[in-house]
From TrEMBL:
A Gene Ontology BP annotation from the UniProt entry: formaldehyde catabolic process
Gene Ontology cellular component terms for the protein in this record: cytosol
Function: Has high formaldehyde dehydrogenase activity in the presence of glutathione and catalyzes the oxidation of normal alcohols in a reaction that is not GSH-dependent. In addition, hemithiolacetals other than those formed from GSH, including omega-thiol fatty acids, also are substrates. Also acts as a S-nitroso-glutathione reductase by catalyzing the NADH-dependent reduction of S-nitrosoglutathione.
GO MF annotation: an example: alcohol dehydrogenase (NAD+) activity
EC id: 1.1.1.284
Keywords carried by this UniProt record: Metal-binding, NAD, Oxidoreductase, Zinc
Residue ranges constituting the Enoyl reductase (ER) domain according to the UniProt record: 12-366
InterPro entries: ADH-like_C, ADH-like_N, ADH_3, ADH_Zn_CS, ER, GroES-like_sf, NAD(P)-bd_dom_sf
Protein name: S-(hydroxymethyl)glutathione dehydrogenase
The keyword Coiled coil appears for this protein: no
């Protein structure tokens, strides 16, 4: 079939809208009409050329929601008309990782996904007869996509696509990091570095679990008001304090119980670890840093009980947890609407990237 998509031809160049040829679903695959997609900082990171797995040309996008149009042979859990959220972290429920119950990082299709291909080693996208890469197994900047069944969460049909698409990455990553990865307990002091599309969801996750102090750190003063609305109790602008680590240790009477790095800056990752409480403080890395970047700290920081962790997709098991998170939104337990600051048609998708770069948006959503 033919569809429309925003194609990334070359690192750093704006996306262009193209007529794309899309091959139909093979065994175990599903054709989905994408109705809406968010633009996450990770799309920008890959487009910038900093992603070691970034391939060009590609159809980026990994924060979508849509409707099943057709299923390939052997698909048993989905049918045409089902509403779905594509998962860049699938859940096969059969691989070593899924069965371990220790991680959400399903390995069933990770190697082909990282090569921009479907599990059979081919691409379903072509422009002008030439193959174009998939991205993160989702490519939600295309109006239609083919996705393995294990990479689709079936969601309720009354949930609005232009809001719940954000559960495909940002909402789940932020809230999940608090609930599933850190397992923050009521009363704990939490520090969140970076109050963008992910960090604000960490803040609302911290409020959900009844955290004590919720301290937000951002260079952009415009982030303070929104973060307070989502539960932040204290705001720190690093450019206005002498030493951000000492400042947080003072604010928390000895250090944070949990900190979250939601920027992708390795210097901030160090600060996030070192502002944690001696003996037990845990720092969770969410931000994605560029190829070749490394983190550093004195081993003494770990010897004295601080814990450094990371999380992908908030530790969520997509097919199991995403439908539940959609329910939380529909039941009014989480706020998504206020974080979606801009809505654009596909042909204005580059404006969404510009708004993010200028720090003017939290989430831009493209509606097909
Ligand atoms: P964003 O651009 O919306 O937000 C980043 C925020 O960090 C902005 O508010 C910005 O002002 C602030 N910031 C930048 N430099 C800073 C500094 N030195 N000190 C303090 N604040 C600073 O981005 P986002 O969509 O929220 O994504 C955040 C990071 O999380 C990115 O690296 C993204 O790739 C990553 N991410 C990871 C996962 C995962 O599963 N681990 C999922 C989604 C996004
Ligand atoms: N290709 C990148 C990996 C970037 C990365 O860590 N991605 C996160 C999701 S970010 C969503 O916005 C992730 O899921 N990681 C686990 C995985 O298996 O990729 C790089 O830097 O190499
Ligand atoms: Zn993302």
């Amino acid at each position: 079939m033919k569809t429309k998509a925003a194609v990334a031809w070359k690192a750093g160049d704006p996306l262009t809208i193209e007529d794309v040829e899309l091959e139909g679903p093979k065994a175990g695959e599903v054709l989905v009409e994408v109705k809406a997609t968010g633009i996450c900082h990770t799309d920008y990171y890959t487009l910038s050329g900093a992603d070691p797995e970034g391939l060009f040309p590609a159809i980026l996008g990994h924060e979508g929601a849509g409707v099943v149009l057709e299923t390939g042979p052997g698909v048993s859990t989905l049918a045409p008309g089902d509403h779905v959220i594509p998962l860049y972290t699938p859940e096969c429920r059969q691989c070593k990782s899924c069965l371990s119950r220790k991680t959400n990082l399903c390995t069933a299709i990770r190697s082909t996904q990282g090569k921009g291909l479907m599990p059979d080693g081919t691409s379903r996208f072509k422009v002008g007869g030439k193959p174009v890469h998939h991205y993160m197994g989702t490519s939600t900047f295309s109006n239609h996509i083919v996705v393995p069944e294990i990479a689709l969460a079936k969601i309720r049909s009354d949930a609005p696509f232009d809001k719940v698409c954000y559960i495909g990455c940002g909402v789940t990553t932020g809230i999940g990091a608090v609930l599933f990865t850190a397992k923050v307990e009521a009363g704990a002091n939490v520090v969140v570095f970076g109050l963008g599309g992910i960090g604000l969801n960490v803040i609302q996750g911290a409020r959900m679990v009844g955290a004590g102090k919720i301290i937000g750190v951002d260079l952009n003063p415009a982030r303070e008001a929104m973060a307070r609305k989502f539960g932040m109790t204290h705001f720190v602008n690093p450019s206005e304090v002498d030493n951000v680590v000492d400042h947080i240790i003072q604010l928390t009477d000895g250090g944070a119980d949990y900190s979250f790095e939601c920027i992708g800056n390795t210097k901030v990752m160090r600060q996030a670890l070192e502002c944690c409480h001696r003996g037990w403080g845990q720092s969770i890395i969410i931000g994605v840093a560029e190829a070749g970047a490394e983190i550093a700290t004195r081993p003494f920081q770990l010897v004295t009980g601080r814990v450094w962790k990371g999380t992908a997709f908030g530790g969520a098991r997509g097919r199991t947890d995403v439908p539940r998170i959609v329910d939380w939104y529909m039941d009014g337990k989480i706020n998504i609407d206020d974080l979606i600051t801009h809505t654009l048609p596909l042909d204005r998708i580059n404006e969404g990237f510009d708004l993010m770069k200028r720090g003017e948006s939290i989430r831009s959503v493209v509606m097909y």
